[in-house]
Amino acid sequence: MDLARRAHVLLLAVLVACLVWACRAQERDYTVKEEQPENVRIGNLRRDLDLNLDPGARLSSPLQFKPVYKTGDVPLVRVEANTGEIFTTNHRIDREKLCSGVFAEKRCYYEIEVAVLPDEIFRLVKIRFLIEDVNDNAPLFQSTVINISIPENTAINTRYPVPSAFDPDVGINGIQHYELVKSVSEFGLDIIETPEGDKWPQLIVQQNLDRELKDTFVMKIKVEDGGNPPKSSTAILQVTISDVNDNRPIFKDSELEVNVPENAPIGTSVAQLHATDADLGSNAQIHFSFSNQISAATKRHFAIDGSSGMITVKQPLDREVTPVHKLIVLASDGSSTPSRATVTVNVTDVNDNVPSIDIRYIINQVNGTVLLSENAPINNKIALITVTDKDADLYGKVACYSDHDVPFRLKPVFNDQFLLETAAPLDYETTREYAIKIVASDRGTPPLNTSAMVLIKIKDENDNAPIFPQPEIQLSIPENNDPSTQLIKISATDADSGHNAEIIYTLGPDAPDGFNIDRRTGILSVGKRLDREKQERYSFTVVARDNGSTSLQSNVTVRLIVQDLNDNSPAFTHPEYNFYVPENLPLYGTVGLITVTDADAGDNAVITLSILNGKDNFLIDPVTSVIKPNITFDREQQSSYTFMVKAVDGGQPPTTSYAKVTINVVDVNDNRPVFVIPSSNYSYDLVQTSTNPGAVVTRVFAIDNDTGMNAELHYSIISSIIITSRVSPRGLFAIDKATGNITLQEKIVTADQGLHRLVIKVKDLGQPESLHAIALIHLFVNDTVSNATYIQEQLRKSMETPLDRNIGDNDVTPQASGYVIVVIAIIAGTMTVILVIFVTALVRCRQTPRHKVVQKGKQSGEWVSPNQENRQIKKKKKKKKRSPKSLLLNFVTIDESKPDDPTHEHINGTLDLPVELEEQTMGKYNWATTPTTFKPDSPDLAKHYKSASPQPTFQIKPETPVAPKKHHVIQELPLDNTFVVGCDSLSKCSSTSSDPYSVSECSCQGGFKTAGQITTRQETALKPPHYGTLCGTARSHRIKINL
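Structure for Protocadherin-11 X-linked, as requested:
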């Protein structure tokens, strides 16, 4: 049952597929006469199928018409492969032979299938040739002598059947006419046409017969067909006149039709005939027999009992061979005229035939095996499969299918015809042969099936490139190898076969010179001596190419590493090294780097450096190869050092190299300029009003202990103020930057008279940063020095005056105009009240805590005015007429050198440092190259101050410290005549650093021997001999001086 159900499903699939494939399958009918000679044109298949291809269409192969013949068939027609022209062959078409097995068939067809290739335009065309009959056969009687017995008392016009002739031709070429030749008057001939179109001759009695007069008549009967020309044949007709038998047998049924299964066993009853005879005795005895008009094959399959009339099966029946048998049975009672009955035996079908499978190959096959390329595309047609079943009805319905695990499939094209084609890509390397099982099953119960095998061998194509087992080959070889050294045998595999699998090895285009590979064995060798120091790594490709008609190739990368040998000594970058170091280089600072290389690698390139002579003075870092001093330098004591450095590598045995090292000690800009002239900041020079412009009124002179550019000095005036007036000077004086000569620039007028204060800056040209110093020059412009006390008072005011503005607003000089005196006298009363209020408010503001000022953001210029104690001291100083000995540019207090004198009083004052002075005159110093005790960006305002005044020597004494506040920094001054500034910009101050080489927050110590104690407070004095610096970030600075 499962098999039957499966067959039903497959049949349904076939029907659906036939609908789908109708557009790919076509039929074409042609008519051809039989017996045509060779090369008679029948038709043009390409034209008749309307195969007009697009000229631009690309086909895998040219258009081809390929007939598909059954194995063993003799081709009766020929189809030209290129043109589709159809011709006859040398095998003549014989309609009678071709259609001999078809019973009562008037139309004869010859069928072939033609495949239209290639696959892009594939179609299967079934061609049916209708074979037209030609009169190539003459009608023949079954026997050359025909015997007929007629009773003597036969009535006139009685008809007796004459055995018919047979003509295999049909239609008009078949039997058309019978006639008697050499006839007698007693008999005539008539022809009866059956419903099937057969013509039966009948003998007619035309005269009374008398056996006693003549008992035998001999005539000749002629049969003729309708061909042009007609064909005919004759036979002897012998009529015997028999004695009288009045009644002949009569069949109960003169025509009888029965059905007999084809599997009826021998002896099976087919039909029972019944006949009666009115005579008596021996004349009534009936004998049944078959007529001579039935075929010999029918006589072989059936037998009839002469007495009973029972027809039985004599031999096995086969509906597929003869589905219908016509039996002509004669019943005779011994008379000359037997009775006739026709029995039609229909052989009914049983499922006794297994389906047959007919395979017609589209692709040529050799010894029953199809050779198919592995590059065959999908849907490539292989064979036309025709399945048939001789059974009828459902028993003759056949389903066809193939194995499901092969890359092939069956596609229906016509009823019971299928195309075997590829269904998936083929791969020779995976499967080289296929045995495809084709199964055909009918719909009988139980179903019968059969199978056939299609053998397909896959033809190898060069579709596989050689394959290397790994994508990259790593090799190594020691340098200095012998030439022709074999490195490795390179092998690749190719899944193809035959020539397609033969591999040839070559080097790629990127292979360097000196490498070789054997084309057949793949042995890679190097033909030169390798030097790792010239090239350590080699990378190139090796190509494996197969020997196919269209060769394929693949590459593998060879990476060769040349192993190092200790064949190179260490190499210094220079045979001799010269280093230049500053004399202030700290202990263990960096002198220089010794660079040494070794062309070898690994341990052979590990270099150890050592100093041969000079180990006490220098050492070399084993990691960085940096030379460091083990001593401090002094250029004045020793200006250069020379020693040898040894380099040893780590090879076995090790190799050694030497280099000479010379270290030169160079000078650094570590000394700031020192003013020699003027000797005191309290000195002054008289400039008479009659001095001509261009005259040198005075000069300044400074020295620098450095050398070279570090000792070359330039002078400049950075500020000038007329102490005795309220207005700024008009550029009356100028200074020569090289000589320090100060000259008068313009003619002196009355407004220019008074004490002029010039701030002189001297700076060196040191690199990378210059150092500078500041000195004060006082020029008294007047005709004479009439009042020395007045001048000293103005000098004191100058020292108290900030460097960026004029002070003396409350003092009226002797040179003031009379108009000013009158105005002052008029408003004296009013000013007194205002002054009292102003002073009171000023005092209160000065007493405000410093942190409030900071909170208001006034960090750039808030300085405290002198207190009441300082004012009292100022009055006392006026009485004593003593000149100050020192200058302070921050809040400092200067006392006389007689600290034990109870009569000594302090004189207080302030000086404001202008912004221009801060920005333009403050030098910078590179602290990264020269170790020093100076803090960068902090001014140093005093160094080596000496007084030339006849006044007593003063000493600096600190006042009581107050709470630290921002910008209120105490600076000590030296007891000489020079202000020295070591920083260009002001920064925050801090004196907590103990490292003399570090950069503290503000340690502008100026290189003094003893660092000054810096205390931040509002008003503080430090006692000598400490030296201090000025630090701060304000834009305007006020300096308090206590004298």
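Confidence is low (pLDDT under 50) at residues 1-23, 806-819, 849-1043.
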